[in-house]
Amino acid sequence: MARDISDDTPITDTAELAAYLETGCKPEAEFRIGTEHEKFPFFKADNSPVPYAGEHSISAILAGMKEKLGWDAIMDGDNIIGLAEPAGMGAISLEPGGQFELSGAAVKTLHETCRESNRHLAVLRAVAEPMGIGFLGVGGSPKWRLEETPRMPKSRYEIMTRYMPKVGSQGLDMMYRTCTIQVNVDFSSEADMRRKMALSQKLQPLATALFASSPFTEGKPNGLLSWRGDIWRDTDNNRSGLLDCAFEPGFGFERYVEWALDVPMYFIIRDGRYRDCTDITFRQFMAGALKGEIEAWQPTMGDWTNHLSTLFPDVRLKRFLEMRGADGGTWRRICALPSFWVGLLYDAGAMDQAEQLTADWSIADIHRLRDEVPRLALKAEMGGRSLLDVGRDVIEIARAGLKARNNLNASGQSEAVFLMTLDEIIAKKATFAEDLLALYNGRWNGSVDPLFAEFQY
After folding, report:
1. DSSP label at residue 148
2. Residue ranges of the alpha helices (H) in 45-106?
């Protein structure tokens, strides 16, 4: 999230919180695609991390991109922490360890998504290369220790850094040493949201397996294919993971609100300053927990919107749905992730087929799969079948859904062209993480350093 929200509209009843989510409903003709991707900046000379401040730094890159793009600076105190396109068509933000994120504009087709990514990366290279800085797209920091990873001067991250060790063993690794690709999709009604939430939660472990790209930690194999996926198993289980309630027949906006109300808060913003609120839930905040402690103690819609952005389930509900299971990856994977989900979720026939395929998957099965995938990826099993075989079927369903959308590029290709990366994984029977391990054990001679040169953007 590039910018925390300021909206002083007072909240008087929890029904207003569900109504806020419901405003996301829109006609299918207005459905859009929003793609987000993160990458690790590094100095090409020695593959070391890039600091926030200095002549060659994260802040210098942001300043250079501001000049080239004409976007508005996002500030936290005196520090530039992101950029926003003036008309709301995209933003650039920083993750805690300096991971550079593009939150793309809401666009109609996957062709537009990929052009947007191309433009972003071209501008980024033009600014960063004279500084000797490159960018790496993988799911986990392959070399740097936590203590040598830079920390961005962003107030919400200071609060999270203090809080994370209290609620899980891997929260700081999540913050500082992981990257992801995400796609945001729309829904037409509460019932449509319910179907998409349930289906995408079932298939999120498959996405983790297909996009696994984090087999290294501190320069060595970590025994996993998606270290990032494993990190989320013990980051903060009050606010992350699989939402069992989303499989209930009556699940809807109100049920999600009830869950969110009982998740501890991170902060509220008053007079431009962040106040640590990790000792109360939003429900307690609504009940007046801060009355007498601060003057503006009443909850606002800005507080609620910011709270929603601090919840981390595998599929997150805002006024759209966020698919959160994939590791970061190369440019082709930035296009492949939205093609996978749009093909499944934006065509009625594809959704029907995917629901039929997963109809017998129990909640316990999905939890087990989610636990096994970081280590086994496509070798994990569901219903007596490997995820490789399941993935082959699901990708074909997505392909049919994309072809049915009939959005063609100038060469007459449908959006299904972006599934080619996943087709290659299925054909080779190996994930990107397994490819990297083969290189490490082969011509890289037990070093992760060639990864930076060979797979930078």
Report:
1. G
2. 58-69
